[in-house]
Design goal:
Chain lengths: ~300, ~300
Amino acid sequence: MKKIKIKVPATVANLVCGFDILGMAVDAPYDIMEIQLLDRPEIIITHTDDFGLPEEPSKNVAGIVLLKIQEYLALKNGFKVAIHKNIKPGSGLGSSAASAAGAAFGANVLLGNILSKDEMIHYAMFGEELASGVRHADNIAPCIYGGITLVKSSAPIDIIPLNTPDLFVVAVHPQVEVKTSDARQILKKDILLKDAVKQWGNIAGLVAGIQNNDFNLIGRSLHDCIVEPVRSILIPQFDEIKAKSMELGALGGGISGSGPSIFMLAEKEETAKKIAESMKSIYDEIEIKSFVYLSKINPTGIQIIN
Amino acid sequence: MKKIKIKVPATVANLVCGFDILGMAVDAPYDIMEIQLLDRPEIIITHTDDFGLPEEPSKNVAGIVLLKIQEYLALKNGFKVAIHKNIKPGSGLGSSAASAAGAAFGANVLLGNILSKDEMIHYAMFGEELASGVRHADNIAPCIYGGITLVKSSAPIDIIPLNTPDLFVVAVHPQVEVKTSDARQILKKDILLKDAVKQWGNIAGLVAGIQNNDFNLIGRSLHDCIVEPVRSILIPQFDEIKAKSMELGALGGGISGSGPSIFMLAEKEETAKKIAESMKSIYDEIEIKSFVYLSKINPTGIQIIN
């Protein structure tokens, strides 16, 4: 009986100025998935968490990915999957991407590593399409590759894995709902060329900073004059969280994905801990329940744990 | 008598997708400047070329830079400068930047290296302001630093020197006039967010490619969906030159600065030579006089030759 257990990392998409192109895997939170190869063409999904996600394969993010793999590879096998999700759906921390990427990764291992990373991404994007209506790779790419990835294009797939700077990541997930579709609709379709130029100066600086492990340059580049000013109004206390984190020594940070989670980068664990406490206490004060995750940038992506 | 002779490289600004932020120094063409420190506060500029540029210091690009240095440093010295310009004014190859950067660089050496590179850029931008009305560092930064530079911000000055990929550069300067002000006016003030996202994916890819010496990635990233489609209509045979160059094996290329020069990058000298011949013959055929320069990316910027 072929069976594996994998650990699938949460991911932070956009990375402030890198709207729709950059993403980063983090060590926490993460999902656990057990995937078994069946000798009959059945797909069985069970969730051992209590988020009430659909388990019918065609309606489940992992299920649809496995159905597509089964279909395109004309498999006679099926898969039985048990998902224990710790990455909360709707958190902006790549919950659907984790299920989708985990399914593609797990199936690939069980089938004898017949897929390239980009092929796994290709299949996993069907899960994102089911979850949000958009076949995007912003979260899937770092989940599969680890570290920080650039999605230069998702059709055709052109993913550039960047360096993994040795940095701490603090993410706070306030228990409020921000729908990805709302977060997308609120954006203006037109932007000023002069703002775009400022943005691409920051993106170029961020990529150079990541590649050179220049933490100061990473910090100087984490500015977003286009998306953050619009989307941050959907997230309670965004400005306060950010200002206080910067005061405590964060390199920079912003909205994770389309929110409501907020992430901050820090060089030292001590700084990261203070930021985590500050985030928690800001939400406690206004009685919004929140979860805070302190970890590092995850260098490997999905890993087999047995 | 303190006197130096320097070689000042031409520069290619924008680098296709890097509008207003990237620039690159090239080995050819280049200006020669002789700068002498005077023990009286006079500024004397002479041009040994025949472009008919003004020699009155306050109206000369090198002159204004030296006047500003003299003023801000409260110098009792003056400078005598002889400029032999090979970089044609109005070519889009950083002619004014060369005079401005050369003046700042030369003065600095003669004054005992009291200025940082960014201070030289600060002074040299007064020359660009005189030439085009805009205090920009797109050409000055690579002229001073060499290689490829990112101007993350020009006020305050934040320049990131990037790698110098070992590539050949072919630039063709057709003898037509494209005014920088026209080239700027023709641009739309608003752009689509989705085009901006495509553009910053390419910029991120280009910077990663430059930093990793990944020539294929550099080539895949040299696309501009915003500025080139608009500005290229001002340059005769732009599409033909580009298409033919790509066919001959160019990695990519586009408008140099705001034109009319066009540049192409190539991995091999053989390919670069074919591109150079093709450019020349396309302009010969329609009886537009052109100059073609084949060289490499210049790694050092301005150099003292004695």
